[in-house]
Amino acid sequence: GAAVPEVPEAERLFLREHPLLSPAGPGKVRCRLTGHELPCRLSELQAYTSGKKYQRLIKAAREFDYGTFEPHIVPSTKNLHQLFCKLTLRHINKLPEHVLRHVQGKRYQKALKTYEECQREGVEYVPACLRQKKQRARHPDDQTNGSRQPHRKEEFWEP
To answer: Positions of the region Disordered (predicted)?
Structure first.
């Protein structure tokens, strides 16, 4: 990152060692991993970087490659700390254990099989949660009221 003139020397050296921390305005530092803002004081920065959350995230970020799940699991457009699964239309926290749990789960595995079949047959893949909506949209004339029989417009109830 670019050196900001108002950052004192000790803090500047510390920020150089931690590339995920960057100056965010006068007297503030932002963590790019968590979005957390903290005062630009050496004691605060050291406490933050030695904390459990930062250590866990930095270790995960170093070791885990989210790109391996790519065309199906992509960064979320709505929340930058989450990923989005295009097969199940679900948001997943950007934590290795959460991504692995999702990818190994029944819902994802079933969706992946369906997706691969659609690719072989050359049909457009429709996620499971949208399939029912499409079927409902196909029969607009069948107006069912919950589990009751279809409602007929001709019959009018008289008191």
So the answer is: 132-159
Report the alpha-carbon distance of residue 84 to residue 88 in Å, rounded. 9
Nearest alpha carbon to residue 101 among 89, 109, 111, 113 = 109
Residues 56-88: tens digit of each pLDDT: 877 776 677 777 888 899 989 998 889 999 999
Helix axes 106-121, 128-138, angle to 10 degrees: 60
d(CA 72, CA 85): 6
74 within 8 A of 94, measured Cβ to Cβ: no
Collapsed DSSP state (helix, strand, coil) of residue 105? coil
The encoded tokens of residue 143 equal 């107006």
Sign of dihedral through CA atoms 93, 98, 104, 110? negative
CA–CA distance, 91 with 102 (Å, rounded to integer): 10
Look up residue 40 and give its amino acid.
Answer: C
Beta strands 82-85 and 28-31, pairing class? unpaired
